[in-house]
């Protein structure tokens, strides 16, 4: 009920933004920027990059609000932000590649610092949740990253490859392995009651 | 549209980045579709450490609106308004060369109108021979004013462009001829014949002299070449007639012109000369690509 009204308001806000209405943009920003920021921050450890991507996303909204065609505004915003995230990652890689070999060490360190906090902590916190959650926490962080990028974030194979810095073939094989492991993990879990010695 | 909304506890923990992946994923998917939960989560995130960054970006985003529009307008306006502020005709005339936009067309007009005025208002009946004697030199003056360092302040730059060289010379010569040929021939038609050849008789000689000056121009430069050719014509035809003996000067001029212009052999010779000069010009076309010789 409330959801319907919110959605209509979102579309109306976007129409006003397309006409250059700053108040509408402020309202749209207040409604969506917070969760977009959080979602981006969970996928990218670089605070400055997240800030730039968020700003880019909403600056893009000024320009392309008129091109919005009826889909959920939240999903539409995330699509823009996800593309920006992939682009930012590609640009980072390019600059890293241009810099000479001493910088490679920094690049490796940087990449691991991006990946580390978002996996470690979640493996620890995983046990107390439902079956899918437990199963997901059992599969390796690499497979989970591929699942998140393709299934949750709606990226294509190519975009996922760019985001994670791995070849496209690897994305495909990891996605297949992740599905297989999830299936077997769920099959393994379901007879066991929750909280048992899994 | 399930009617399900995220419990407060889930919202707070997501904002504190304390949710494990699977729950975060399902909440993120829900936020894409549910505006009211999006508002609550965004509110919760604003109250965390990210609030300062969010406020900064908000200011930047709102500032980007008017600035972007202004810069867009500035960026686009020259491209949008260029065609309308410089109409096509003006640009063509500009490209057609310095002669057409300088005092030269006024001079051509003056020659034509002067001849007609002299014949009809002044009652002077020798104007057509005079006009025919001067007419071949008029396009030469136009050509001299069209190409070369002395005629065009942008000459060096123009020569360096792909359309510089012979192509530009010919374009500008064509512009000169397009102005002078009809104007002078029309003026000749309005004059009494008085023993001189037809009003169109100067066309082939005019063409021949123009192409000769272009061909010679490939050796010595347009200005010198036109001066030589025009001087040669003036010495050979009008000057010799006026310096001769017996009869009225205009009658002698008419007689001399008839010898030079009238009849198939004379016109054929002029046509052959024009063809030869054009052939020489084509053979020497490369010299125009390297700028003027002198």
Q: Tell me the overall shape of chain A.
A: globular
| Percentage beta strand of chain B | under 5%
Instruction: Give the total of beta strands of chain B.
Output: 0
Structural class of chain A: mainly alpha
Which stretches of chain B are poorly predicted, pLDDT < 50 over at least 5 residues?
A: 66-84
Largest interface by residue count? A-B, 50 and 43 residues
Distance between the termini of chain B: 84 Å
As a percent range, the share of helical residues of chain A equals: over 70%
Radius of gyration of chain B: 38 Å
How do the SSEs of chain A run, as a string of H and E?
HHHHHHHHH
The largest sheet of chain A, given as strand count, sense and whether it forms a barrel, is: none
Mean pLDDT across all residues of chain B, rounded? 80
* Quaternary: heterodimer
Shape of chain B: rod-shaped
Radius of gyration of chain A: 20 Å
* End-to-end Cα distance of chain A: 41 Å
| Main sheet specs of chain B | none
Q: Count helical runs of chain A.
A: 9
Uncertain regions spanning at least 5 consecutive residues of chain A = 1-5, 100-129, 192-198
Count of extended strands of chain A: 0
């Amino acid at each position: 009920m409330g959801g319907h009204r919110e959605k209509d308001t979102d579309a109306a806000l976007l129409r006003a933004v397309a006409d250059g209405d700053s108040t509408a943009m402020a309202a749209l920003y207040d409604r969506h920027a917070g969760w977009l920021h959080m979602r981006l921050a969970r996928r990218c450890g670089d605070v400055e990059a997240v800030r730039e991507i968020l700003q880019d996303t909403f600056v893009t909204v000024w320009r392309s609000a008129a091109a919005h065609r009826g889909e959920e505004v939240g999903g539409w915003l995330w699509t823009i932000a996800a593309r920006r995230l992939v682009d930012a990652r590609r640009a980072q890689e390019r600059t890293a590649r241009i810099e000479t070999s001493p910088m490679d060490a920094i690049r490796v360190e940087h990449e691991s610092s991006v990946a580390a906090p978002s996996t470690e902590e979640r493996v620890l916190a995983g046990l107390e949740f439902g079956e899918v959650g437990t199963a997901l926490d059992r599969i390796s962080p690499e497979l989970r990253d591929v699942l998140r990028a393709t299934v949750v974030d709606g990226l294509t194979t190519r975009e996922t490859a760019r985001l994670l810095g791995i070849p496209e073939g690897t994305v495909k094989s990891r996605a297949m392995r992740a599905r297989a492991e999830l299936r077997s993990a769920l099959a393994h879990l379901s007879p066991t009651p929750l909280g048992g010695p899994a | 549209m399930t009617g399900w909304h995220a419990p407060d506890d889930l919202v707070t923990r997501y904002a504190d980045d304390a949710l494990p992946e699977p729950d975060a994923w399902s909440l993120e998917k829900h936020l894409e579709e549910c505006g009211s939960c999006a508002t609550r989560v965004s509110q919760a995130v604003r109250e965390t450490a990210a609030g300062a960054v969010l406020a900064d970006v908000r200011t930047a985003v709102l500032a980007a609106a008017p600035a972007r529009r202004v810069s867009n307008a500035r960026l686009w306006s020259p491209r949008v308004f260029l065609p309308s502020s410089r109409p096509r005709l003006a640009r063509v005339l500009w490209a057609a060369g310095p002669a057409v936009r300088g005092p030269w067309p006024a001079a051509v007009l003056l020659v034509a109108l002067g001849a007609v005025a002299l014949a009809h208002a002044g009652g002077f009946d020798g104007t057509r021979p005079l006009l025919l004697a001067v007419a071949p030199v008029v396009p030469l003056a136009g050509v001299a004013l069209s190409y070369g360092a002395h005629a065009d302040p942008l000459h060096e730059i123009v020569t360096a462009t792909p359309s510089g060289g012979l192509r530009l010379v010919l374009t500008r010569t064509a512009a000169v001829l397009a102005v002078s040929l009809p104007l002078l021939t029309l003026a000749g038609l309005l004059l009494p014949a008085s023993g001189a050849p037809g009003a169109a008789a100067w066309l082939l000689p005019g063409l021949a002299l123009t192409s000769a000056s272009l061909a010679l121009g490939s050796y010595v430069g347009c200005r010198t070449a036109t001066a030589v050719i025009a001087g040669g014509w003036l010495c050979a035809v009008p000057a010799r007639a006026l310096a001769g003996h017996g009869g009225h000067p205009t009658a002698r001029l008419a007689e001399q012109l008839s010898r030079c212009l009238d009849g198939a052999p004379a016109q054929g010779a002029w046509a052959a000369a024009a063809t030869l000069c054009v052939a020489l010009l084509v053979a020497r076309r490369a010299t125009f690509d390297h700028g003027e010789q002198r």
